[in-house]
Recover the amino acids of this structure.
């Protein structure tokens, strides 16, 4: 009988750690305990909770939330051994929708953030080992686009590497029992592996360093050239309108990248 959820709990709890309340720049999740943010706990209990209530939350409640909000959200019990853990950790760190959309993009199926029959069918036609590798690679690429990457790059890199290794061990049936990674005091302070990696924190620069962003930047440059070269109010008006349109389009593009 499959029991990956129980196997990886100690691993995940070790990675997430206990109570944390870093600056929003470093960790947009805010007050967090066992990887459960203040917002998630409020939604789970159906009412706003204080920072103190987050701090006092016990491990058993955190495990209930892990199961209902994250493991079940990505249908962990139906995923291949190893891939289930890779998806579970990605989900806890960045949300179910982000993890599922990343997997769907890799599989080449419809991207809607919901792990349904089509996605499950596609998973079972692919190599579990290759999927774990591709998911880990895309996860790290996503993290590097976030505004808080500079604060968490060491911890996140270590987390993705560790989870990938454990996931591959499970997939290859080489590790019936998982052991929490050894974390030093330095790791706990500097390499905060538990910081949330969320799409809404995608940096504006990363959004513009895409084909769509580069095109908009080129159009804006043409508008500026028009202003500099213009010899009358009509040309200037057209150029200003062009730049305004590009700015609005750029803003919408950034928002799109942050919710993708």
């Amino acid at each position: 009988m499959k029991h990956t959820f129980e196997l990886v709990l100690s691993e995940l709890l070790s990675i997430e750690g206990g109570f944390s309340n870093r600056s929003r720049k470093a960790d947009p999740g805010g007050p967090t305990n066992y990887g459960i943010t203040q917002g998630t706990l409020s939604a789970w209990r159906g009412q706003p909770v204080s920072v103190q209530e987050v701090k006092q939350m016990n491990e058993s409640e955190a495990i209930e939330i892990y199961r209902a909000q994250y493991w079940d959200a990505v249908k962990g019990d139906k995923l291949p051994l190893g891939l289930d853990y890779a998806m579970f950790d990605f989900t806890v760190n960045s949300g179910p929708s982000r993890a599922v959309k990343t997997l769907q993009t890799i599989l080449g199926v419809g991207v809607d953030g919901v792990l349904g029959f089509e996605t499950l069918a596609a998973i079972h036609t692919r190599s579990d080992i290759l999927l774990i590798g591709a998911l880990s690679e895309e996860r790290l690429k996503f993290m590097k686009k976030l505004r808080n990457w500079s604060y968490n790059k060491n911890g996140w890199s270590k987390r993705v590497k560790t989870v990938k290794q454990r996931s591959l061990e499970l997939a290859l049936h080489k590790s019936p029992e998982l052991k929490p990674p050894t974390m030093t005091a330095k790791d706990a302070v500097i390499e905060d592996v538990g910081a949330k990696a969320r799409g809404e924190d995608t940096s504006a620069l990363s959004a513009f360093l895409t084909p769509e962003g580069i095109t908009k930047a080129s159009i804006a440059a043409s508008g500026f050239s028009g202003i500099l070269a213009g010899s009358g109010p009509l040309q200037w008006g057209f150029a200003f309108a062009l730049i305004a349109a590009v700015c609005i389009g750029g803003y919408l593009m950034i928002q799109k990248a942050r919710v993708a």
Notes: The CA atoms of residues 44 and 145 lie 29 Å apart. The chain has 13 helices and two strands. The chain has a mean pLDDT of 80. Strands lie at 32-33, 36-37.
